[in-house]
Amino acid sequence: MVVPVLVNPDRYRAQVISFLEKATGKQIEIGHIGVNWIPLSIRIDNLGVRNPKPFPAGDVLKTARIDASLDAGELLHRRVVIKSLVLHDPVINVISDPDGLWNFENPPSPTQKRAPSFALGVISLVVIESGELFGSSLIDPEDRPGPVVLEAHGLGARLEQLNFDAFLGSSSSAVAHGDMAASSLRFGSIAATKVKCKLRLQAREVLIGDVKAELYGGVAQGDLSFNLSGKTPTFQADARLNRVNVDHLLLAAFRSAHGKIMGTMEGDVKLAGPIEHTFEPLAAMHGTGHVTVRNGKAPTLMLNQNLMKLAHFNNLGPAKEDASSFAFISAEMELAHQRISSKKIDVDGYGVDVDGAGTISVSGSDDLAFAGIAAITTKQGFFTNIAARLSGATVKDGKISFPFRVSGTVANPTFTKGKKED
Fold this sequence. Notes:
Elements (H helix, E strand, L loop, with lengths): L1 H4 L7 H12 L3 E2 L2 E5 L4 E10 L8 E12 L1 H4 L6 E7 L2 E6 L25 E18 L4 E20 H4 L8 E12 L2 E13 L2 E11 L2 E10 L6 E12 H8 L8 E13 L11 E12 L5 H8 L14 E12 L2 E11 L2 E10 L6 E9 L5 H9 L3 E3 L2 E10 L4 E5 L5
Parallel strand pairs: 5-7, 6-7
Antiparallel strand pairs: 1-3, 2-3, 3-4, 4-5, 4-6, 7-8, 8-9, 9-10, 10-11, 11-12, 12-13, 13-14, 14-15, 15-16, 16-17, 17-18, 18-19, 19-21, 20-21, 21-22
């Protein structure tokens, strides 16, 4: 078919559309077909691949231009072999249905088998230039469009050995592998910039490895993967953070916590969970991590000042000048059921050292429950020490430590004295 097409390829646009519709099981739109002779390639302008049913109206893929490089030698034997594809300014919309279907796959036939397909084969190289990617899910029970969970802009990629049959869902073999970059990428509410990574596509699995990105003034490295099998997709993320601005991160992840904790964060975080077909698709996310925040402030907690006042100390020492500041906070954390809990939190304040444990809600209420032992690093006077012992505190080497609790919310904390056995 392609040999006469080279003379005036746009005359055969209807046949090309028909071929692609049979191969993909989707409605295809093509604005114009042209040919470039050196090197030999077919140019397709304004290609649109429409969503199949039961997905809403829209495009799986919309691209301004595709350049398909052909093997001239194979054409002499009446075989069409595409050596490479270049997609210019593509917009890709990936949508998951509650029944486990994806809009990029060949839709099932009425007999529950895949629609017949003409083999598109394996293409050695596929290049994406200046693309955009959006990933979302439909919501039960009416298959309404849900929020965008994954979003990438300025997307560029070089994919090798792209297996179209596997991509369309008719094979379980590898789909493609290569490199990817994006000027910005957002997953959930967390956004990164200047993203570079390795990309491997399997049938219903996406592996993003060796990720390097800028994240809220700092750097993030790690791996991210998506399992697209089953009715509910899942994800796993393993990240190493360095010099991240905590306040900017909290503003993105937990908007109500903005301005409550400031500083520079480093550490390791592992997250995983389902991507549910709801308006809060990542609500069941869970994970663990160890983080350290340095040279920060907690203006609403005023930890140093509140602990000093709680014990009625006369000599506030460094806490007098740095009522809300701390040198570092180190914590082992666990996220589950929209609460962050920690069995070990170490706070080195100015004039106050704290060891404790507690939980805080990330569902929007910001309620917290914390218990610990506060050690006052500034030596107190004789009468203050006596009063401290009578109130249940411990005095050692002229320094006082005592148990305490914090309840309420991050914005309005309540400090109370604890008991020795707490």
